[in-house]
Amino acid sequence: MSDMSDAEMKETMTDARLQVRNATIGYDQRIISTDLTVDIPHESFTAIIGPNGCGKSTLLRAVARVLTPVKGEVLLDGKPIASHGAKQVARQLGLLPQTSLAPEGIRVADLVARGRAPYQSLFHQWSPEDEKAVQDALVATRTDNLSSRLVAELSGGQRQRVWVAMLLAQQTPIMLLDEPTTFLDIAHQYELMELLRTFHDEGKTVVTVLHDLNQACRYAQHLIVMRDGQIVTTGSPAEVMTPDLVEEVFGLKAMVVPDPVTGTPNIVPLDPRSAEGGLAPVTPVVDEL
């Protein structure tokens, strides 16, 4: 984890390349969020958290220019993101959607190579720089030994790392990921989160939608907390993650204690069966001889 204090983190995250201003966002003629205003701190590891259906993925898709706000706007470098060319945006930010489907019969190296699409044109065909970007992404995600395998043959954890490799090959300073740990077992979840932390440590802005609050607090510097389509609060995990917030946003009574490994906030649900609503008593186990 970073050794920077909260004050030092704030100082390094004052600039925001991505900003949402008074945005009303929805899809299929359904409004999900209204009048959203929020900044994505520059070079931060930001986690968007909240209950199911609260608008987390909708916000991320708007930031990625997949959705156009009905009102308001998303700004990239101070200008409406819609005013930038599609390839220009694709060279600045990349999105890993919640569900990604690989074309049938495609091999790992070919899928990762699709991350280079923003750099291809009639005047710029495949180059040694593209080849290096793909190879570097395969190595960074430890999928280089899978490069000739069919994507359909891979395990869930391997497949997710391949998709991250494609995103990495895009070589954008901003990486957006929508629930990247979904469908992964706990070991692969933490493996992926460590990989994202490595990218952040190398200077990338990482923005991810997460369900696991303890993972969000352990890995993110900055939280955006949502409920019912609105932003409840933003800030560092130490600032915003309190028992009152957990109960208000998630309807869960919990203690917030320091993680024994990292010292970051750790959410421990209280036992509703306990008379005091606290932690359940632990019954000693006695071996029978």
Concise account of the structure shown:
The chain has 2 domains: 1-92 and 172-241, Rossmann fold, CATH 3.40.50.300; 105-169, no CATH class. 30% of the residues lie in helices and 24% in strands.
Mean pLDDT: 90
Helical content class: 25-40%
What Rg, in angstroms, do the CA atoms define? 21 Å
Q: Could you give a short account of the major beta sheet?
A: 6 strands, mixed
- CATH-assigned fold name of the largest domain: Rossmann fold
- The total of beta strands comes to 12
Low-pLDDT parts are 1-13, 281-289
Using the alpha-carbon principal axes, give the shape: globular
Strand content: 15-25%
Entry keywords:
four-stranded antiparallel sheet, ATP-binding, disordered C terminus, Iron ABC transport system ATP-binding protein, 289 residues, disordered N terminus, 12 strands, 2 domains, six-stranded mixed sheet, globular, Rossmann fold, alpha/beta, single chain
Structure commentary:
InterPro entries: AAA+_ATPase, ABC_transporter-like_ATP-bd, ABC_transporter-like_CS, P-loop_NTPase, Siderophore_ABC-ATPase. One of its GO terms (molecular function) is ATP hydrolysis activity. Keywords: ATP-binding, Cell membrane, Ion transport, Iron, Iron transport, Membrane, Nucleotide-binding, Transport. The chain has 289 residues and is α/β, with parallel strands linked by helices. It has two domains: 162 residues, P-loop containing nucleotide triphosphate hydrolases (Rossmann fold, 3-Layer(aba) Sandwich), CATH 3.40.50.300; 65 residues, no CATH class. It is built from ten helices and twelve strands. The strands form three sheets. A six-stranded mixed beta sheet has the order 6-7-8-3-9-10, sandwiched between helices. It has a four-stranded antiparallel beta sheet with strand order 2-1-4-5, with helices on one face. A two-stranded antiparallel sheet has the order 11-12. Helix 5 runs antiparallel to helix 6. The longest helix has 16 residues. It is globular and about 60 Å long.
